[in-house]
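Notes from the 1:1 (GR / supervisor)

We went over the backlog. Supervisor wanted to see one worked example end to end before approving the batch request, so GR pasted a single chain during the call. The sequence is below; no edits were made to it. Supervisor asked that the structure be written out right there so they could see what the output format looks like.
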Amino acid sequence: METKLIKLLSLLGVACFALTSVIAETSSPTQMSVPPSPTPGETGPNIFIGADYTLWTAREAGLAVAASNFYSTPIAEDAAEQGKIFYPKSKLRSGFKVDLGVYLPHDNWDLKSEFTWFNNNMNQLHDADFVAGQAISTFNADGTSTPLTLAAASSSWNVWFNRIDLTMGRSFFAGHYLSIRPFMGLLGAWDNQSLHTKYTEDNIDSTEYDVHNVQKWWGIGAYGGMNATFTFISDSSNQWSLFLDAGTALPWSKSRGHQYSENKTDETIPYTFGNTTYTVAPMLETALGLRWETWWADGSWMFLLQAAWEEQVWFGHNNFVSPSSGTTGSGNGAYTMQGLTVKAAIAF
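Structure output shown during the call:
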């Protein structure tokens, strides 16, 4: 009896395994993220073109322009209020990406190039809100090491950012619903930054200073990462999926800066100098989003639409004069861009 039961359980296990395999094969998504033939163009696309609309905001550490609630005459403890640090304002700004790629006949690897453009343009100076005589400057304005006691302060920060990637990778399925695409390549980027700060000193003359920081930067280096896609809905011509893209780079970079101050009241220049810095500036990026794909003509044509939250972090990017130490080339802040990215692409 026990022998018959063991045989029955064994047969039942084999049957369940076979049924599971059949269901997995029939319900697995159409594998459009992998060229379906060793020779691109026979039964699948071999060229893909894409365009992205980006709505990002930019930030950079180390851009404090003023600090409030510094009392020239100490006050009672119960009357003191916590002050704040003031930074240039940042807003959501539109940008774009464009990419072009081709599937190679060598084991279905793909070759892709992409260009990214972003401009954080702030034409107007934005005022810092504090009580006159109870704030100090953080950037050097008069050429001395003593901060100014301020009656008013305003600032604007502009960034013009460009990036070009050239990568090669290969997509393949890890199971029925998860596809991954490791990639490697080369990254090049460059940007221009300007920080304009206007100070009005709290003195009898209400002396006005315009402090200008300008930085031009470029970097080039190895770039790699992985794209992961999890498909949760699929039929013969449509596919919905979640995706996570991640990448990192170590570009060798050069930063050239110029800082000068203008005493607008006396029409003099307290100081003007420049600095050049060479370093490796690490970069990390991620994008998490939702993707829809559809294809026709036996899979020879494909259209893709997706939306994602994207982030890029460029470390040690701020080479303006450090407000704390007053020295140049300190790399005292990371530059970040983050926001919505919407992409449309076609492959044929």
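Supervisor's comment: The two ends are 62 Å apart (CA to CA).
Batch request approved.
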